[in-house]
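To: structure desk
From: M.T.
Subject: fold request, one chain
Message: Could you run this one when you get a chance? Sequence is below, nothing fancy, just the single chain.
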Amino acid sequence: MKKLPWILCAFCALQFVSAAADDVHVEKDIEYLGADRSEKADLYLPAKIAKGQRCPGVVIIHGGGWSGGDKGAAREINIGTTLAQHGYVCMSINYVLAKKDSTAVTWPQNLHDCKTAVRWLRKNAERLQLDPDHIGAIGGSAGGHLTSMLALTEPKDGLDPKEPYGEFPCRIQAAVDLYGPADLLSWHDISMFRKTRAEAPELYRAASPATYADKNDPPVLILQGTADKTVDVQQSKDLASALEKAGTPHQIVIIADAPHSFHLQPKQQDLRPLVLGFFDKYLKK
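Reply: Done. Structure tokens follow.
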């Protein structure tokens, strides 16, 4: 029974992409981290962009517990297609994963990969007809966590990679966090660290988005369902509280009966107007 919603979501997403084929152009497997990295990105672009027009950009960050997931999953297809249909240049990325057969520490390289994606968009702004001053991010679950970290950290926090494309900034101008954990110390042990919370509490604190809430942070939209059995809804509430205390513009929306993983069109509520309205407000200026 648990597999059925995923099958339906994938089927719906494929139907959605097929219907959108005429107004969305997709470029698959773009090398954005360098030739030595196997992780690639997919671009979702408006099929027609007027000459001289500059579009806002959005980085899409998949979930999967920092150890799985893919840039081309149903949720990411749905998000990329929806946003591209409404004039956004989107980049759905794969990033380094904490694989079960490895003991390699993947934090903060996974965050570095997300920040590099923002830089890559700015480096390629001319070709993509992208507005480099208006870039956002959206992600679900582990991708929601990385999206929040991307939004709330800045150079002084020491989490920006030196290269590649170090001449471009990593900062984004808006973020949508879909059911991502915000306080890792109050959650559970995570494989990407290869250490437990008891062994490295400061490491878990330093990888928690709530740690970095600041009045200078970009606006954040937080979405989570009441039926989430993977990430407690309190995690989203804690992030909202940290943002409120810091004076960061934010909105939290709790969707009744929605499960842990959903895209922009769950059966409980069509989230497209909410997410598009949020990005339009802060990125289409």
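Reply (cont.): The longest strand covers residues 130-140. Let me know if you need anything else for the meeting.
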